């Protein structure tokens, strides 16, 4: 009788343990499937603010976005000097652009705020602004890769540049 009772208890423990691991196995499989099926959440829009002053420096030199993401970029000129003597813009260049060559062309484009007319090297740019001004642009992030951004005002590219990463 005693052996029968011990056997019944052992069987009960074995049944409970098997049932418990089966439930765990099922929920683990469901969790794995739901995680695999869930797409990565990417924000459709990203807002970026860049400040630049009379010291000829952007406060951001690296920007990371996702391919196709809507980028809302605001450039603030935190200095006091007018755009004629200390103008700033933010210009995103196409991959493969030789920055020094483009900057030399841009210096000659005073009448178009230092963005050469019909420049195929430019993906997007802000207006040229002076102290206390700002400009906001909105664009779709280009294809995955590394891009460079610069200020095209004469002489500024040496210090006012950065990398735009598209993942």
Description:
It is a single chain. 29% of the residues lie in helices and 28% in strands. The chain is globular, with a radius of gyration of 29 Å. It has a 5-stranded mixed β-sheet with strand order 2-8-7-4-5, with no helix packed on it. It has a 3-stranded mixed β-sheet with strand order 1-3-6, with no helix packed on it. It contains 3 helices and 8 strands. It has 167 residues and is of the alpha/beta class. It folds into 2 domains: 1-38; 45-166, Cupredoxins -  blue copper proteins (Immunoglobulin-like), CATH 2.60.40.420. The chain has helices at residues 2-37, 83-86, 99-107; strands at residues 45-52, 62-65, 70-77, 91-93, 122-125, 134-140, 145-150, 161-166. The model is unreliable at 2-38 (pLDDT under 50).
Radius of gyration: 29 Å
Q: Any low-confidence stretches, pLDDT <50, length ≥5?
A: 2-38
Order of helices and strands: HEEEHEHEEEE
Q: Let me know the largest β-sheet.
A: 5 strands, mixed
Task: Please state roughly what percent of the residues sit in beta strands, choosing from under 5%, 5-15%, 15-25%, 25-35%, 35-45% or over 45%.
Answer: 25-35%
**Biggest sheet: strand arrangement:** 2-8-7-4-5
Helix fraction?
25-40%
Question: Brief overview, please?
Answer:
Helix content is 29%, strand content 28%. With 167 residues, it is an alpha/beta fold.
């Amino acid at each position: 009788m005693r052996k029968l009772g011990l056997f019944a208890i052992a069987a009960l423990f074995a049944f409970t343990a098997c049932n418990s691991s089966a439930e765990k196995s099922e929920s683990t499989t469901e969790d794995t499937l739901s995680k695999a099926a869930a797409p990565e959440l990417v924000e459709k829009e990203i807002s970026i603010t860049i400040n630049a002053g009379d010291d000829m420096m952007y406060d951001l030199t690296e920007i990371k976005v996702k391919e196709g993401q809507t980028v809302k970029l605001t450039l603030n000129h935190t200095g006091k000097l007018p755009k004629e003597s200390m103008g700033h813009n933010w210009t995103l260049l196409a991959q493969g652009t030789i920055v020094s060559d483009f900057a030399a062309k841009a210096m000659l484009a005073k009448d178009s705020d230092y963005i050469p007319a019909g420049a195929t090297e430019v993906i997007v740019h802000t207006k040229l602004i002076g102290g206390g001004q700002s400009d906001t642009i909105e664009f779709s992030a280009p294809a995955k890769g590394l891009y460079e951004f610069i200020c095209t005002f004469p002489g500024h590219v040496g210090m006012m540049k950065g990398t735009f990463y598209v993942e």
